[in-house]
Amino acid sequence: MTEIRMKVNGSVESLDVEPWVSLLDALRERLGLTGPKKGCDQGACGACTVLADGVRINACLALAVQYDGREITTIEGVAHPLQEAFVRHDGFQCGYCTPGQICSAIGMLAEYESGMPSAVPESRGLDEAQIRERMSGNLCRCGAYNGIVDAIKEVSG
Question: What is the reported pTM?
Answer without folding.
Answer: 0.96
